[in-house]
Design brief:
Blueprint: H1 7-17, H2 24-35, H3 40-50, H4 54-63, E1 75-80, H5 83-87, H6 90-104, E2 114-119, E3 130-134, E4 139-143, H7 144-149, E5 159-161, H8 178-183, H9 188-193, H10 198-208, H11 220-228, E6 235-241, H12 250-257, H13 259-273, E7 275-282, H14 287-302, E8 318-323, H15 333-340, E9 364-368, H16 369-381, H17 383-387, E10 397-404, E11 410-415, H18 420-427, E12 437-442, E13 448-450, H19 461-466, E14 475-480, H20 485-499, H21 505-522, H22 530-544, H23 548-552, H24 555-563, H25 565-572
Parallel strand pairs: 1-2, 5-11, 6-7, 6-9, 7-8, 10-14
Antiparallel strand pairs: 1-3, 3-4, 10-11, 12-13, 12-14
């Protein structure tokens, strides 16, 4: 007799069973969509269908924060707790919502109806404080004030800057359709690319000087060339849309407003490296962007831009969308591969690098959303025209995410070279409420704090480097002089402790000890030698951690120690 608890799941399991282990996370998400959580009978049924040990199924469920093995409320409310939302009052929102909801719910069993929980960055920093609300019938996100007042059907992000190239179709209040994108020159670049050999496409990208926009800044053309030359097939193309760095929301805006630009970049990259299959991995919290990308992919497929013999050529390519399940570490390329393969998102030891052994052990190119959006521009207008923007060592434009204590938070596109001061005080309107600048976190949680003495740093790779600042993924979170630096540092330390995957000991233990010291600092009870311990932890994590998370987990705190030593001395004294 069929267990009624899994009868609906059993109807769809045969489709997933054909895919094997790589279908594990999608089917877990489907089970949770049906039942609200992954029950024991559901987990057992999935284990049998996919032929995965039950212990490993639970290992995956427990690893990802958006998968639940125990009942939760029919409505889940996630309250963002990253620094941008914190300075906008996220703690007060959390307390207010829990008290209000408890008053209205059945006091005997409130969790059966609504669950409220703190969440890491939701990628809505320009709308801080932000919420994500999931219920059986709908999912909405946005600014707290808009959601509780019911005035926001869809949040809009301010789009600014001095140029409008990657953001040309953004800020219109709706996703650009296939027709709109083509009216503005869309998909002409893939047509141009298909008229030449893949090697010529790669050479044009190399000549452009484009480097990865996700933070690592590796030369894109060289990465493509390395994969294209690998004799083992198949080759895979992966778009990394698992944008989860606190303060970052640029990829979300492009997905929501200009999805076909991303698809065209993916197509060109796939053609260049000889890939016939690709994946776009979208962070689990980005439910609406996922829906927009799905619609755009359907449009492209119906127009024969995805699938067999694209535009009447011998080039065929299929793209599969994947939703993440709540793990910051999956922004790391090899952890993302593990997730697609149906495993916990543990980073792999490198080498071998992905261009040789990546997804499913095959040669793989992985680029983030912003990087791929540059590709149609380069191919359509040429590398020479592209290099006329920006600086010699940092050609092109860059998307910057501005949030925090500024008058006009939003997404700004500029050619490399503008100063941090110009960005904050001219484009973003300066400090809100006539406050005074204290610091700016540049590069995200894994970045570094800039003081007033560093405001004239040029926003380019080489310019920021000369001021001991990282460009990262293009995050600038501004704090005025009313903000508590110890509280901000505590939140950053808590973020890295929670997001450490635990695979390597230096990061697992280092982030825990770093958090403990920051907790003592926030409570004004630092112990003698704590600053030395922080320095030792930073050196150990940087040198010995397996991946970028541990290697940069102390970057912001270390920069605060250099820039604001009086904070640490006063606290200890």
């Amino acid at each position: 007799m069929t267990d009624p608890d899994v009868s609906r799941l059993l109807e769809i399991l045969p489709v997933y069973a054909k895919q094997g282990r790589p279908a594990l996370i999608p089917v877990l998400q489907k089970a949770q969509e049906i039942y609200g959580y992954v029950s024991q009978p559901a987990a057992a049924a999935i284990s049998r269908a996919l032929r995965i040990p039950l212990a490993e199924v639970y290992g995956v469920i427990e690893f990802y924060s958006l998968l639940y093995s125990q009942p939760v409320g029919k409505t889940l409310i996630h309250v963002c707790n990253d620094p941008a939302c914190a300075v906008a009052g996220a703690d007060g929102v959390f307390k207010r919502m829990t008290k209000t909801l408890e008053f209205h719910l059945d006091q005997d069993s409130p969790t059966r109806e609504i669950t409220v929980e703190r969440a890491p960055c939701l990628g809505l920093c320009e709308h801080a404080p932000a919420l994500l609300i999931q219920s059986p019938h709908h999912v909405i996100d946005g600014a707290y004030e808009d959601l509780v007042s019911g005035t926001s059907s869809r949040h809009r992000t301010k789009i600014g800057g001095t140029v409008s190239i990657l953001t040309a179709n953004c800020g219109k209040g709706h996703p650009a359709s296939l027709e709109e994108y083509q009216q503005n020159g869309g998909y002409l670049a893939i047509q141009k690319a298909l008229q030449v050999q893949p090697e010529a496409v790669i050479q044009e990208v190399k000549t452009s000087g484009l480097v990865g926009r996700g933070g690592a800044a590796f030369p894109t053309g060289i990465k493509w060339e390395g994969c294209a030359r690998e004799p083992e097939y198949p080759h895979y193309l992966v778009c990394n849309a698992d944008e989860a760095e606190p303060g970052t929301f640029k990829d979300r805006v492009i997905m929501e407003d200009d999805p076909h630009r991303i698809l065209e970049g993916i197509l060109i990259a796939a053609y260049a490296i000889g890939a016939e299959k690709g994946y776009m991995y979208i962070r689990g919290e980005y439910v609406y962007p996922y829906q927009v990308m799905k619609t755009a992919l359907d449009e492209a497929r119906k127009a024969y831009l995805i699938g067999e013999h694209i535009l009447g050529t011998d080039f065929s390519f299929e793209l599969e969308l994947r939703r993440g399940a709540g793990a910051y570490i999956c922004g790391e390329e090899t952890a993302l591969f593990e997730s697609i393969e149906g495993k916990r998102g543990f980073p792999r030891v490198k080498p071998p690098f992905p261009t040789r052994k990546g997804l499913f052990g095959k040669p793989t190119v992985i680029n983030n959303v912003e990087t791929l959006c540059n590709i149609p521009v380069i191919i359509q207008h040429g590398a020479a025209a592209y290099r006329q923007m920006g600086t010699e060592k940092s050609p092109g434009t860059k998307l910057f995410c501005l949030s925090g204590d500024i008058n006009q938070p939003g997404l700004y596109e500029i050619p490399f070279g503008m100063t941090l001061r110009e960005m904050i005080f001219q484009l973003a309107g300066g400090i809100r409420n006539q406050g005074s600048f204290q610091s700016a976190l540049v590069g995200g949680a894994a970045g570094a704090f800039a003081s007033a003495n560093q405001l004239d740093a040029p926003l380019s790779f080489e310019g920021l480097r000369s001021f001991n600042l990282p460009l990262g993924s293009g995050v600038i979170t501004v704090f005025d002089d009313s903000r508590s630096m110890p509280d901000i540092l505590l939140r950053l330390a808590h973020f890295f402790k929670e997001e450490s995957c635990g695979k390597c000991y230096p990061c697992q233990m280092g982030t825990q000890r770093q958090l403990e010291i920051m907790e003592r600092m926030a409570e004004n009870r630092l112990l003698p030698g704590d600053t030395e311990r922080l320095s030792d932890l930073a050196a150990t994590m940087t040198d010995a951690s397996l991946c970028g998370l541990g290697q940069t987990a102390s970057s912001a705190i270390s920069s605060a120690m250099r820039l604001f030593p009086h904070l640490f001395k006063i606290m200890e004294g």
